[in-house]
Specification:
Elements: E1 2-7, H1 19-30, E2 36-43, H2 50-53, E3 57-66, E4 69-80, E5 83-89, H3 91-94, H4 104-125, E6 131-135, H5 141-149, E7 160-165, E8 173-175, H6 176-183, E9 196-197, E10 200-202, H7 203-210, E11 213-216, H8 219-224, H9 235-240, E12 245-247, H10 274-288, E13 298-306, H11 312-322, E14 327-335, H12 337-349, E15 354-357, H13 362-371, E16 374-377, H14 387-393, E17 397-401, H15 404-409, E18 423-425, H16 430-446, H17 448-460, H18 466-479
Parallel strand pairs: 1-2, 1-6, 2-5, 6-7, 7-11, 11-12, 13-14, 13-16, 14-15, 16-17, 17-18
Antiparallel strand pairs: 3-4, 4-5, 8-10, 9-10
Helix pairs in contact: 4-5, 5-7, 10-13, 11-16
Bound molecules: adenosine-5'-diphosphate (ADP) and alpha-D-glucopyranose (GLC).
Alpha-D-glucopyranose (GLC) binds at residues 18-20, 23, 166-167, 217, 250, 382-386, 405.
Length: 483
């Protein structure tokens, strides 16, 4: 049995702020368990839901040298859906009201500690993996510490590492002298061929330099990040390591996201009966959100973190024009104040057409995927994107910008050959987006049979984990020299 350990800063069902949690929570379940033993290690955040916390059992505790002091490490464990989860407990570091805080250096401190503590935990949990699979900048120091601090331990000698980039924009950067002090890494690690980048120390860069393999979450994003525009300053390194870099598109959990069995939605439906059933969810969402109740009106959803990555500037630019059309917009999201205020404003201005729900709700997200006709995702960049996959599964057609995983997972409508599962545009341009939304409106209102055939194709598309999990397995085998 090959042993794989995921190290990540979030994972469903325990803690989630975005798509990373979905991946960490669903990919391990999909890996062939007769051949791989996949386990997950996460921080134990004080803000985790109480009922979930109550599922955990205490395993052990010890202390490590970190930031010039002895730092407590508690280990908890729990089995969920057949997967073993471990949690690193340290209340002074993970005690915030949100998993992530605003103080940049404090974030780096939390996750540098988490990376080091995870490695020290391996003997305690009695699981010395063949591969440690790290996710995003928060775990960038795992491959670094493994090389620097654990190589002399024969138990750790053979461990391989994978670094998966879910979002290259966040890298964990801070000035070199403070990171040197904090991490206790020797000075020669802070050179441009290791952790230093543009005069700062960079945790993700450390991970990308020292990992044995690098992946990201779609083929297109794997290409994009080798360019200046999407490379966030690390395109040079990613080009240099391009032989070790692969793009594997994300899947979604087909059990959690299944319109036929979903308990969050009022009217379950499937690919055969959506024509008769899906609209009822729209009616009930219109009632719930105090929108005009008209099931014939096109409803467009947005379920997203509210950050500049997601293309809200484009929406802001043409929102007044869009609201002249016969459409409703339902937004669910939290994030930057600028965008929360923007949607608040439009919901006030067009109260019967726009509903802004500026909070986090798993349940409302499912209702939106089920009730809407289309989902708008005009991202500036999108490593993979899961919302469009969820909406496809519920027969809600995505309208997306052709970037990253959006390009790889949404086939644009082709009127001539009657193909496609959604609508897409190329340039980051507000009127190009508006024209695409209006084209979708035209198909929705004037060519309903064509629309419904597109829904057929969307619901038939397969974005379960099966295919992608086998690509991860292939990579694990390759790393361990078994192919
Ligand atoms: P990202 O990881 O960049 O945020 P993804 O599309 O990959 O984008 O994943 C977003 C995930 O977070 C999806 O599961 C989506 O349903 C969920 N999500 C985003 N915002 C909210 C919210 N306010 N309430 C509930 N779920 C949300
Ligand atoms: C990141 C990306 C998103 C991706 C998710 C899971 O949050 O922004 O595109 O789907 O990670 O990989």
């Amino acid at each position: 049995m090959k042993k794989i350990l995921f190290v990540a800063s979030e994972g469903t069902p325990f803690i989630k702020t975005g798509g990373l949690a979905d991946v960490v929570g669903s990919l391990p379940k999909s890996i062939d368990r007769s051949y791989f033993d996949v386990r997950v290690i996460l921080p134990l955040y004080a803000c985790m839901n109480q009922p979930l916390k109550e599922m955990l059992t205490f395993k052990d505790s010890f202390s490590i040298d970190f930031d010039w002091r002895e730092e407590y490490v508690g280990i908890f464990e729990c089995e969920a859906d057949g997967v073993m989860y471990y949690f690193i407990d340290n209340e002074s570091l993970f005690g915030g009201i949100h998993p992530y805080g605003r103080d940049g250096f404090m974030e780096i401190k939390k996750f540098a500690y988490f990376s080091l503590a995870s490695l020290y935990a391996l003997e305690t949990i009695d699981f010395i993996p063949d591969i440690i699979h790290c996710h995003d900048w928060q775990t960038g120091l795992v491959p670094v510490y493994l090389k620097e601090r654990f190589r002399s331990n024969p138990l750790f000698n053979e461990i391989k590492t994978v670094m998966t980039i879910h979002n290259l924009k966040f890298q964990g950067r801070w000035n070199v002298s403070m990171i040197k002090e904090l991490t206790g890494l020797p000075p020669y690690f802070f050179t441009p061929d290791k952790l230093e980048a543009y005069h700062d120390a960079n945790l993700l860069k450390g991970g990308l330099v020292f990992a044995d393999a690098i992946t990201t979450v779609s083929k297109t994003y794997a290409e994009e990040i080798k360019t200046d525009f999407y490379g966030e300053g690390l395109d040079g390194l990613l080009n240099a390591r391009s032989n070790d870099l692969r793009g594997i598109v994300n899947g979604i959990d087909y059990e959690d996201f299944d319109p036929e069995t979903d308990t969050h939605i009022e009217y379950n439906f499937n690919a055969r009966n959506f024509r008769k059933e899906k609209w009822k969810n729209k009616r009930s969402l219109q009632a719930e959100l105090s929108l005009q109740q008209d099931e014939k009106m096109m409803m467009i959803g947005i379920v997203s973190r509210l950050t500049d990555q997601k293309g809200f500037d484009l929406i802001n630019y043409v929102m007044d024009e869009l609201c002249q059309d016969h459409v409703q917009l339902v937004i669910l999201g939290t994030g930057e104040e600028e965008y929360e205020n923007m949607f608040r404003h439009y919901a006030w201005k067009y109260s019967d057409k726009v509903s802004a729900n500026l909070y986090y709700s798993e349940s409302l997200s499912h209702k939106i995927y089920a009730a809407c006709d289309a989902l708008l995702m005009p991202s500036l960049f999108e490593p993979c994107g899961l919302s469009q996959l969820m909406s496809l599964r519920y027969g809600t057609l995505p309208i997306v910008r052709e970037t990253g995983g959006l390009k790889d997972t949404v086939e644009p409508y082709n009127e001539i050959y009657s193909r496609g599962t959604g609508f897409s545009f190329t340039n980051y341009n507000a009127h190009e987006m508006l024209a695409t939304v209006r084209f979708a409106e035209h198909i929705f209102y004037d060519r309903k049979r064509e629309w419904n055939k597109m829904v057929d194709r969307a619901m038939a598309a397969d974005f379960s984990w099966q295919a992608s999990a086998s690509l991860y397995q292939e990579m694990y085998d390759w790393l361990l020299g078994d192919v």
